[in-house]
Amino acid sequence: MAGEIPDLEAFERTGTGKGAARQARRDGMVPGIVFGGDVDPLPINLDFNKLLTKLRAGRFKATLFNMKVEGHDDVRVICRDVQRHVVKDLPTHVDFMRLKRTTKINLYIQVEVSGEEECPGLRKGGVLTLVRPEVELVVTAGDIPDHITVDISGLEIGDSATIANVVLPKGSKPVIDRDFVIAQVSAPSGLASQDDEDEEDVAADEVPATEVKED
To answer: Please, are residues 183 and 121 in contact by the beta-carbon 8 Å criterion?
Structure first.
């Protein structure tokens, strides 16, 4: 099931070269280019403030966008490069690549949890921690899942669910090439503190008292 892809509005840039790019920046825009997909490159401008907001939100290069340019069909794109001012660190140019439905890309996919009501660890007062609310996957552009599901219905206190426990969508695989924890059920903080105190008491009891000899 394909997830909702955010829109990215752009404007076709008339003219090319450094002169047109400088004019775009003076007008509060960031010049860019859309390439790939067996179509001629399309020079574009993006609103500086809107682009900066998306960049500061994070993972801009790992987000699939539905680019909307007046006079052109909507197209799925992913950012391939953001050039920045060497001193101000603000965007000066952005490169986007058009994607075919069969293109493989890296995206962060949201994690949803199932089985909370049946989870024995939670029934005993355990606390669920979602270690990874999102997981970076290699997915096919034409079949992007809106989420993956981790089942915790069998977890006891102290147990964890890893990526190996998740049924991934067809054609998807984790970027990390090893097993890793997604969610875990921990003891409640009060119980954990009590356990620590009990361990300290036992340890103290096991230490032999110092023998005192009377003169």
So the answer is: no
Is there a contact between 187 and 157 (Cβ–Cβ < 8 Å)? yes
Q: How far apart are the first and last CA of the chain?
A: 85
Q: What's the whole-number mean pLDDT along residues 150-162?
A: 96
The side-by-side arrangement of strands in the sheet containing 148-151 is 148-151, 104-114, 134-140, 173-174
- CA 168 from centre of chain: 16
Tokens matching residue 115 = 């089985």
The token duo for 77 is: 């794109």
Strands 134-140 and 104-114: antiparallel
Residue pair 152/113 in contact (Cβ under 8 Å)? The answer is yes
> Quick one: which H or E segment has residue 195?
helix 189-206
Q: What is the pLDDT of residues 158-209, one digit of tens each?
A: 999 999 999 998 889 999 999 999 999 999 876 555 555 555 544 444 444 4
Q: Taking every pair of C-alpha atoms in the chain, what is the biggest distance, in angstroms? A: 104
Q: What does the angle CA 172 – CA 173 – CA 175 come to, to the nearest 5 degrees?
A: 130
**Degrees (nearest 5) of the Cα angle 29, 33, 36?**
155
Nearest of 88, 156, 85 to residue 118 by alpha carbon: 156
Average pLDDT of span 33-59: 93
- Start-end of H helices in 37-151: 48-57, 120-123
Joined tokens for residue 189: 């903080």
